[in-house]
Amino acid sequence: MNTAINKHTNLSKIIFFLSIEVSLFWIVAGLINVYYFTIVGVIYEIGWLPNLILLFTLPLVSLYFLSKVNKKLTSLYFYSMVILTIAILKILLTQ
Asked: Taking the CB of the first residue and of the last residue of the chain, which one, N or C, has fewer CB atoms within 10 A?
């Protein structure tokens, strides 16, 4: 029996969950006033640069690994790219 059909690697899961985190960070930061509460502002100021770097590098990393798995649409790399593309478009179009 082939058990590797629907098996996702740990790296694909990490990239997928990082994509969700980065997308939520930027979408929530755009929806609320992050400086209303001091602690939220501190967390935002600590996290904005790493999240900005990840926002633009994770799609490239996902594209690289997606090409290695023969561009399967069931891959978490594909869904990671979709999530990040939606986040980038939301950030660019809501200004």
From this structure: N
Residue 62 lies in a domain: yes
Domain count, the chain: 1
DSSP string of 49-92, one letter each residue: HHHHHHHHHHHHHHHHHHHHTTT-TTSHHHHHHHHHHHHHHHHH
- The predicted model scores a pTM of 0.82
Question: pLDDT by residue (tens digit) across 29-59?
Answer: 888 898 999 999 999 999 999 999 999 999 9
Amino acid found at 53: I
How crowded is the C-beta side of 74, counted as CA atoms within 13 Å?
Answer: 6
Residue 63 near residue 69, CB atoms below 8 Å: no
CA dihedral over 23, 49, 15, 69, signed as positive or negative: positive
